[in-house]
């Protein structure tokens, strides 16, 4: 009987030593993110997740026109509908402008949750702080983009709206159909950015990751777009004091290729607009009224636009250095925003000084401008803003902001037989929540 | 390789010596059925005065060695009367023994194998299907699993989806769907193409829990047990040679009904007139235009006259690229198989050796496979047979060449990625490759060549000869087994298997291949001074992928068998096993590769470059390097017990616990216990039973659980790390799986009720089985609101229920010189997803059921189902399709689609057969055999393709375009909508998902015919061989009947099922 006993002992030993045997991870590339390297890798997903900016607003901003023939051949119904501000949205597929920012929020939350559960040693402290700052910045960036597209426009000192966004502060994926108020979402964004400013490093060599300046610039954009010009002004001053590098456009070579390299000096935070067929089409022509704003000695005219043989000009100069359009934050945006805040604060001297130094880099044989009144100054700065910062997802935000302030900007699409228009403060300024969301979470649709 | 051969030769020599060592006289004999003349394998030969006994081999032959003298020999075989005969030793001639069938006997004993043990079928309670050697070798295919088609009740072959086969329906939604394959008692992880069907002795399919639950957590999809050939003890050397050749029809590009050239050109002209191509003409990525559009542009620009343009286009309209595809890309596929088997054994040892060589040419020119297989099996008994040592060695080497160009991938690679313009030509009249318009505008390419870039034209036919894509793989399996009789009732078995599979995939794109030229040209940089530089050096590009997987499996098993008081029969096995599988892979690319001198060049992966065709953008040199690795570990403990009382009452029980290395799961969740129990009652053994027409009647009832695991899921957030981001070159990660704290294993419960019966004289026998199969905790995919951060979530959310039956009936219609047998089986299955809380949108169900690969279950319906929209007919005024909105025909497409709830969809039925089976008739007269198999599939539906207009007026779509509504009155003869002025996805949807396009899939087809002639030397003739068989075989012979009028084969709608003809010879020396 003894020999059986040995056999059982051997089998028993085999079974009890399984603990380690079964802890081996099943795949080399697979991890349960539990360390700073893993979190950093998640935040470095700059192609599939982060560093992408919704672009549907740009389609609807009417800086571009597209002939009917070409419009009808656009493959995505979303972009066709957005182009004519259609109220009836029946595209059943995924709308990346809605889903990708929420993915960014989810990834940021995975990292924030993870950082909260792991032990961080003394020498990891700086890196952990930076990663937390990056995650907070990304979450704020995503929420702000969603806010601008899918919720009604509200002012910092005005009425709130109940049609905000669901608030997601952790990585659990339980559906949440409850839309918090716009004010709640805004305070989340501001809190995230304020904290990110404390945590992020001053210098970040990778432009796909936020630095302190990026967080300040985004916070400035958030205040600015809701009309809180004094808060924006404060941040503008800080950013200006820290230095805003500009490229001298008048010295750039005019070639068929892209004059701006990737990660160039004007880029504070690199992000690209989501790709729609619309943007790549040679039949997406710059609106003639917009084109008329550029004088012949404006260097931007030759740098930005190209005639590819169609009946109009295409836009070609992307601060991404690639064929994808820029949707990040640049020094030129910060500077022009700051100047506008100065004008609104009636600091016309500094405003004109800064604007002149800016225009020197944009216009050949530039003659200095002086402001005689605030109205005149505002007109000039808004014109410069329009010429400099179109084509990067900001126009949609400006349209809502300016129309609220009474600028009465009417947009129109002329297809010959049918004409579509978007009137100031129209409900169509708020994109409908995609059916994919409404069907699955019974979220309340935006009023039409 | 060399070492393996040496080893085999050495072992061969050893066996030879072993046989010579016997100093006895040899008696050769053969046992046959006195009525049919068929040899009787498995008959028992006993020598009365000695303790010796042997069993006949599969040809009914035996060899026994005896000292000089006179002996009485008793031959017995179940189902036959015993025979006693006297024999004088030595005796030169073969002893012929004929047995008369026992009028009141049971059918021959069938042994079924669970992979752990062999048991006589009459003792089994579970549901087994045995596919014997004759059936396995009936079909001619390189792939073993194909040989089970239409001969295995309960095994369904699917024509859509990723799961090729299901045993009694699909037991899972998203986890692994393939049945567990056991070869020589161990799970096999390699590709099934590596099994030479000629080495297979038999296959057993385990269908219910009692049969399969011994395999526990991996048996959820059923188990297929494969036994390879082995010699018998005390049998003479038998050499058999098999050689066969088969050839298939050529594939036909015209099979799929696509728009013809003239319709295509007229749409192109129409679109051109509408300015549709204005965007592409100025494309910033230099997107290509078709030759017709280029011609129209030339005419518009005045480069050619309108008359010239019409003439050029007129010439195009005479062409059809499908002719070239048939001539240059398709070929009749061929297969040559050669195999040699040597088997034999002495008193204490036996062996089986085989070598095989297969060579096949694929249906695509440039694809083919070679396979060499060698196997060696040996059993040696020691200590009076108390110890048995068995070894097995299997070696498979395969070479695949994959140079073919798949016609389905031929395209202009324009923005819309439509199919290739149909008036393309692949070769000139001499058969030389000619270019097609591809990827870039022709004018741009010519201009670039003028600037000093490489020839940039794409000649599809040239690619086949300019690339050398091959995969070489080596598969080695080593089995060691030790059986030791600890006691007369107790046996210890330790077995071990080592498996290794190495595969090397090389893809060489020569310097002249379009692949290399294109990449080199795209990266060509224009310097400020106008000179060119080449970041990718000119030369070939070589991709190498290596992967290596090996596994160790170790099992310890104790088995106890005892019979006492002639009434009790108990058999128990218990054991434990370990498995460790590890795989590694790496891939690499070499630029500027020169195979003659083995030189490669360094390239700059870090810098950004401007693509030549698209200079406003930046790109990097593609970096193709990486490592992968996976580890799969299992530990299991199991037991199985069977008890028979009074040869009437059977009881069985089995239990198993598995644990596996699932990522991010608490240890206690890593394992799952599963069990089964069964009851059997042989009613015909009861005293009260006196129904003489059914001498065998047996009832079986089983219940139990099998399991399944989805290794890709985890309770925690898991992420996959990738090499380097395009933008920063840094590593990045993607969340693979959101956290799921409630994750558990899938469980499938199976209940089986079966009745086995056999008629008088054994002329009719069969079984009826009825089963319920319930899946619980199945991993399901929920569409999630995107605001969660994910759009799909996987968790244990689903339940399924299937019920069905398998009927098998064999009749021996005529016995005698002329024989006629009929084998019939019918399997029916009704599958349903019973719990799947989350609903997708109606359009998604429609879409998924049209694709057939993704699974999106709707509660209450089968997993694979066809849904449709009610059809409102065409509008007689404009030919617009109409759906139904609020009970009325409507053209408000957006409202029709958006108001649709999943419940409103018409459920047309399952998209997979719910009834299937086959009826096979075998006729024989002397050595002549004729067999044909007719199979049927029914109770399922499919969606017919038709025209989808999209945004390009249906360009390149279905040939139904020709029969579309064009003027009032057409609606009386056609249901095909008119061309819309502005393309609308929902207008297309209302038609393409309408119920008029759903067809019934039911059909009957002539599966195959096999004609063979067998010559035996024993039957009075002297031949240089013992027996030989010549056969002719025709496979996939065509549809005999189908329910739908649709001209296409319901199961093969995009590509044709090809007829296949084979002939071959089997010789046994």
Task: Note down, in words, how this protein is organized.
By secondary structure, chain A is mostly helical. Chain A is built from 19 helices and eleven strands. In chain A, strand 7 and strand 8 (314-315) form a beta hairpin. In chain A, helix 3 (36-43) runs parallel beside helix 8. The radius of gyration of chain A is 25 Å and the shape is globular. Chain B has 1069 residues and is mainly β. Chain B has a 22-stranded antiparallel β-barrel. In chain B, strands 10-15-16-13-14 form a five-stranded mixed beta sheet. A four-stranded antiparallel beta sheet of chain B has the order 3-2-5-6, with no helix packed on it. The longest helix of chain B has 19 residues, at 2-20. The two termini of chain B are 28 Å apart. Chain B: Residues 1-21 form the signal peptide. Chain B: Keywords: Cell outer membrane, Membrane, Signal, Transmembrane, Transmembrane beta strand, Transport. Chain B: This is SusC/RagA family TonB-linked outer membrane protein.
Order of helices and strands of chain A: HHEHEHEHHHHHHHEEHEHHEEEHHHHEEH
Average pLDDT over all residues of chain A: 89
Q: Approximately how much helix is present in the residues of chain A?
A: 40-55%
* Helical residue percent band of chain B: 10-25%
Query: What is the H level of CATH, i.e. the homologous superfamily of the domain at 2-99 in chain B?
Result: Carboxypeptidase-like, regulatory domain
Low-confidence stretches of chain A: none
Kindly provide the radius of gyration of chain B, computed on alpha-carbon positions and rounded to a whole number of angstroms: 33 Å
Overall shape of chain A: it is globular
**Multimerization state:** heterodimer
CATH architecture of chain A: Alpha Horseshoe
Kindly report how far apart the N and C termini of chain A lie.
85 Å
Greatest contact pair?
A-B, 97 and 92 residues
CATH class bucket of chain A = Mainly Alpha
Q: By helix and strand content of chain A, what is the structural category?
A: mainly alpha
Give the number of helices of chain B.
Answer: 14
The geometry of chain B reads as: globular
Main beta sheet of chain B: 22 strands, antiparallel, barrel
Under CATH at level 1, the class of the domain at 2-99 in chain B stands as Mainly Beta
Membrane topology (chain B): Multi-pass membrane protein
Signal peptide (chain B): 1-21
Organism (chain B): Belliella aquatica
Subcellular location (chain B): Cell outer membrane
């Amino acid at each position: 009987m003894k020999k059986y006993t040995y056999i059982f002992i051997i089998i028993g030993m085999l079974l009890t030593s399984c603990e380690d045997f079964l802890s081996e991870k099943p795949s080399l590339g697979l991890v349960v993110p539990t360390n700073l390297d893993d979190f950093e890798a998640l935040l470095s997903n700059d192609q599939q997740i982060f560093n992408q900016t919704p672009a549907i607003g740009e389609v609807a901003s009417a800086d571009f026109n597209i002939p009917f023939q070409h419009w009808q051949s656009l493959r995505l119904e979303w972009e066709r509908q957005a182009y004519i501000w259609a109220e009836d949205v029946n595209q059943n597929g995924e709308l990346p402008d809605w889903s990708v920012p929420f993915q960014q929020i989810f990834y940021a939350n995975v990292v924030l949750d993870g950082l909260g559960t792991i032990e961080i040693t003394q020498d990891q402290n700086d890196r952990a702080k930076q990663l937390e700052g990056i995650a907070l910045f990304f979450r704020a960036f995503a929420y702000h983009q969603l806010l601008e597209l899918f919720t009604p426009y509200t002012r910092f000192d005005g009425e709130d709206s109940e049609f905000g966004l669901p608030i997601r502060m952790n990585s659990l994926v339980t559906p949440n159909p409850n839309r918090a108020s716009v004010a709640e979402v805004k305070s989340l964004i501001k809190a995230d950015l304020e904290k990110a400013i404390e945590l992020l490093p001053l210098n970040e060599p990778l432009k796909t990751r936020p630095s302190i300046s990026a967080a300040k610039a985004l916070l400035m954009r958030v205040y600015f777009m809701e009309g809180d010009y004094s808060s924006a002004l404060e941040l503008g001053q800080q950013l200006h004091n820290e230095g805003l590098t500009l490229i001298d456009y008048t010295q750039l070579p005019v070639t068929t290729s892209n004059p701006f390299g990737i990660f160039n000096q004007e880029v504070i935070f690199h992000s690209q607009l989501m790709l729609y067929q619309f943007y790549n089409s040679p039949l997406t022509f710059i609106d003639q009224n917009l084109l008329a704003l550029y004088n012949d000695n404006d260097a931007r005219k030759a740098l930005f636009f190209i005639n590819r043989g169609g009946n109009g000009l295409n836009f070609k100069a992307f601060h991404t250095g690639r064929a994808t359009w820029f949707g990040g934050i640049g020094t030129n945006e910060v500077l022009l925003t700051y100047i506008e805040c100065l004008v609104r604060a009636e600091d016309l001297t500094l405003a004109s000084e800064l604007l002149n130094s800016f225009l020197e880099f944009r216009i050949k044989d530039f003659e200095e401008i002086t402001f005689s009144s605030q109205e005149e100054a505002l007109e000039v700065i808004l014109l410069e803003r329009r010429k400099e910062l179109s084509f990067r997802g900001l126009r949609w935000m400006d349209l809502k902001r300016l129309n609220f302030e009474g600028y009465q900007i009417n947009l129109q699409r002329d297809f010959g037989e049918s004409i579509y228009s978007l009137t100031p403060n129209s409900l169509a300024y708020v994109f409908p929540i995609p059916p994919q969301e409404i069907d699955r979470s019974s979220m309340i649709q935006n009023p039409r | 390789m060399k070492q393996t051969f040496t080893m085999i030769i050495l072992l061969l020599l050893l066996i030879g010596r072993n046989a010579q060592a016997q100093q006895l006289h040899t008696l050769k004999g053969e046992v046959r059925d006195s009525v049919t003349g068929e040899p009787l394998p498995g008959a028992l030969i006993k020598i009365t005065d000695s303790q010796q006994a042997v069993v006949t081999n599969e040809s009914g032959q035996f060899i026994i060695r005896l000292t000089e003298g006179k002996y009485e020999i008793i031959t017995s075989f179940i189902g036959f009367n015993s025979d006693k005969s006297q024999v004088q030793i030595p005796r030169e001639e073969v002893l012929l023994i004929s047995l008369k069938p026992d009028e009141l006997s049971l059918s021959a004993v069938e042994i079924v194998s669970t992979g752990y043990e062999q048991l006589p079928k009459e003792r089994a309670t579970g549901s087994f299907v045995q596919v014997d050697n004759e059936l396995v070798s009936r079909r001619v295919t390189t792939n073993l699993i194909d040989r089970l088609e239409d001969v295995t009740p309960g095994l369904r072959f699917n024509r859509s989806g990723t799961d090729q086969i299901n045993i009694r329906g699909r037991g899972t939604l998203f986890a692994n769907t393939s049945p567990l394959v056991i070869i020589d008692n161990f799970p096999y992880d390699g590709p099934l193409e590596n099994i030479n069907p000629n080495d297979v002795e038999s296959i057993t399919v385990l269908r219910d829990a009692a049969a399969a639950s011994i395999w526990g957590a991996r048996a959820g999809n059923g188990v297929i047990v494969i036994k390879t050939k082995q010699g018998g003890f005390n049998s003479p050397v038998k050499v058999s040679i098999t050689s066969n050749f088969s050839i298939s029809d050529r594939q036909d590009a015209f099979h799929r009904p696509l728009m013809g050239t003239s319709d295509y050109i007229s749409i192109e002209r129409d679109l051109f007139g509408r300015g549709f191509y204005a965007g592409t003409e100025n494309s910033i990525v230099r997107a290509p235009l078709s030759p017709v559009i280029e011609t129209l542009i030339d005419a518009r620009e005045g480069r050619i006259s309108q008359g010239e343009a019409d003439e050029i286009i007129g010439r195009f309209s005479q062409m059809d690229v499908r002719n070239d595809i048939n001539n240059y890309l398709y070929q009749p596929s061929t297969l040559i198989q050669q195999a040699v088997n040597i088997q034999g054994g002495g008193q204490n040892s036996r062996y089986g050796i085989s070598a095989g060589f297969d060579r096949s040419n694929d249906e695509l020119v440039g694809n083919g496979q070679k396979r060499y297989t060698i196997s060696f099996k040996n059993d040696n008994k020691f200590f009076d047979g108390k110890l048995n040592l068995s070894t097995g060695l299997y070696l498979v080497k395969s070479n695949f060449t994959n140079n073919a160009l798949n016609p389905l991938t031929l395209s202009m690679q324009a923005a819309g990625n439509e199919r290739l313009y149909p008036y393309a030509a692949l070769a000139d009249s001499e058969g030389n490759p000619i270019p097609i318009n591809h990827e870039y505008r022709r004018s741009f390419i010519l201009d670039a060549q003028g600037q000093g870039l490489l020839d940039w034209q794409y000649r599809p036919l040239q690619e086949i000869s300019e690339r050398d894509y091959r995969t070489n793989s080596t598969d080695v399996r080593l089995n060691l087994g030790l059986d030791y009789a600890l006691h007369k009732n107790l046996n210890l078995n330790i077995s071990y298997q080592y498996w290794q599979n190495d595969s090397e995939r090389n893809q060489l794109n020569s310097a002249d291949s379009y692949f290399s030229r294109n990449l080199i040209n795209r990266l060509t940089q224009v310097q400020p001074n106008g000179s060119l530089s080449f970041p990718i050096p000119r030369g070939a590009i070589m991709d190498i992928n290596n992967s290596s997987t090996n596994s160790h499996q170790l099992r310890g098993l104790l088995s106890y068998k005892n019979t006492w008081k002639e009434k009790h029969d108990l058999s128990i096995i218990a054991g434990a096993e370990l498995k460790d599988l590890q795989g590694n892979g790496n891939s690499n690319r070499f630029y500027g590769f020169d195979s003659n001198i083995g030189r490669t060049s360094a390239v700059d992966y870090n810098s950004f470059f401007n693509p030549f065709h698209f200079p406003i953008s930046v790109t990097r040199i593609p970096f193709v390097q990486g490592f992968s690795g996976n580890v799969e570990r299992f530990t299991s403990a199991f037991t199985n017990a069977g008890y028979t009382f009074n040869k009437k009452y059977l009881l069985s029980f089995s239990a198993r616990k598995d644990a596996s290395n699932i990522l991010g799961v608490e240890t206690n969740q890593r394992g799952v216990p599963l069990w089964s129990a069964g009851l059997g009652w042989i009613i015909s053994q009861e005293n009260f039973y006196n129904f003489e027409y059914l001498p065998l009647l047996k009832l079986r009832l089983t219940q139990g659980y099998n399991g399944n695991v989805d290794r890709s899921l985890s309770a925690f957030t898991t992420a996959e790390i990738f090499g380097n981001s395009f933008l920063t070159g840094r590593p990045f990660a993607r969340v693979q799986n959101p956290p799921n704290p409630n994750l558990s294993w899938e469980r499938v419960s199976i209940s089986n009720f079966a009745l086995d019966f056999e008629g008088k004289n054994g002329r009719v026998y069969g079984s009826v089985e009825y089963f319920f199969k319930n899946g619980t905790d199945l991993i399901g995919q929920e569409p999630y609101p995107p605001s969660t951060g994910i759009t799909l979530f996987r968790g244990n959310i689903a339940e399924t229920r299937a019920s069905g039956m398998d009927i098998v009936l064999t009749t021996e219609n005529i016995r005698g010189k002329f024989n006629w047998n009929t084998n019939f089986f019918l399997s029916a299955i009704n599958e349903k997803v019973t719990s799947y809380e989350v609903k997708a949108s109606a359009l998604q169900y429609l879409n998924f059921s049209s694709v057939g690969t993704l699974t999106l279950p709707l509660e209450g319906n089968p997993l694979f189902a066809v849904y449709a929209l009610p059809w409102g007919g065409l509008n007689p005024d404009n030919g617009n399709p109409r759906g139904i909105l609020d009970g009325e025909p409507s053209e408000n497409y957006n409202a029709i689609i958006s108001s649709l709830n999943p419940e409103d969809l018409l459920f047309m039925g399952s998209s997979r057969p719910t009834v299937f089976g086959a009826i096979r008739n075998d006729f024989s007269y002397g050595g002549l055999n004729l067999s044909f198999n007719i199979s049927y599939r029914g109770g399922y539906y499919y969606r017919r393709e038709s025209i989808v207009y999209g945004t390009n007026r249906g360009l390149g779509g279905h040939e139904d375009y020709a029969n579309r509504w064009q003027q009032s009155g057409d609606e009386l003869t056609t249901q095909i909508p008119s061309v819309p002025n502005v393309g609308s996805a929902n207008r297309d949807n209302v038609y393409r998902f309408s119920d008029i396009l759903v067809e019934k899939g039911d059909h009957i087809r002539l599966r195959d015919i096999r004609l063979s002639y067998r010559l035996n030397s024993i039957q009075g003739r002297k031949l240089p061989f013992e027996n030989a068989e010549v056969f002719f075989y025709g496979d996939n012979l065509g549809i005999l009947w189908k329910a739908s009028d649709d001209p296409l084969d319901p199961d093969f709608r995009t590509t044709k099922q090809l007829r296949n003809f084979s002939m071959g010879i089997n010789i046994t020396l």
